[in-house]
């Protein structure tokens, strides 16, 4: 199938799932997945429903957050997060959505971010444009960090791991000196979709999961934005972070991250 046809089918599948998504908001934790991470019963239900429809209608396998799937560095697969912003969703917070990407040999070629509580449907194929509720958006223009809102990932200052909490804390402080318009939405999908549409000038994402990042990366690239990891390397499906922004803003953000890392001698392990 051509990308345009696949995008139409994927949009229809997410449209079909959206009423159930809205109906289930506020669903409590059903499966504990780790420290500060869980899935609701709706995560499981929606992933099964969407995956089955995509496989039946396109013949392409699905890699979902809850049930896994084929490896993503080669071949073609859908990448699905049935509920992005799970904690928001379980608390009845409207900043949450469904994320879907089509990946070919590790490269996202379609991106869909459905935000049913906002009445917003973002979709794009490689090369653009980005569509919002079926209408094409203009490509991103060069901008300045000082004039931009920036989405920033959540963190625990005492957290360890790949990107320690203390580094994230210092990064947030440094960023606040350059932009007084920082936003922490608790949803990677929203941060990246809003970057693609120009609502945000950029987004700093500390997570590495492809189901969180692939759809938004496709949207930002289709909009003419710049997407790397936090070290400035081109983003791939195996990257450990995302730095996505409009031209101009990305360069300023990367310079700020580099200076901060040098000053605190922090290491961002990818």
Instruction: Provide the gyration radius in Å.
Output: 17 Å
What global shape is seen? globular
Helical amount:
25-40%
| Percentage beta strand | 15-25%
Number of helices: 7
Average pLDDT rating: 93
Low-confidence stretches: 266-270
Q: Kindly, what is the distance between the CA atoms of the first and last residues, rounded to a whole number of angstroms?
A: 35 Å
Query: How many strands appear in the DSSP assignment?
Result: 14
**What profile does the largest beta sheet have?**
7 strands, mixed
Structural class: alpha+beta
Order of strands across the main sheet: 3-4-5-6-7-8-9
Order of helices and strands: HEEHEEHEEEEEEHEHEHEEH
Question: Which features would summarize this protein structure in a list?
Answer:
single chain; 270 residues; alpha+beta; seven-stranded mixed beta sheet; 7 helices; 14 strands; disordered C terminus
Can you lay out the helices and strands and say which pair or pack?
Elements: H1 3-23, E1 29-34, E2 37-40, H2 41-58, E3 62-64, E4 76-84, H3 86-90, E5 97-104, E6 107-115, E7 120-125, E8 130-132, E9 135-136, E10 150-152, H4 165-178, E11 182-183, H5 188-197, E12 202-205, H6 210-222, E13 226-228, E14 242-245, H7 249-264
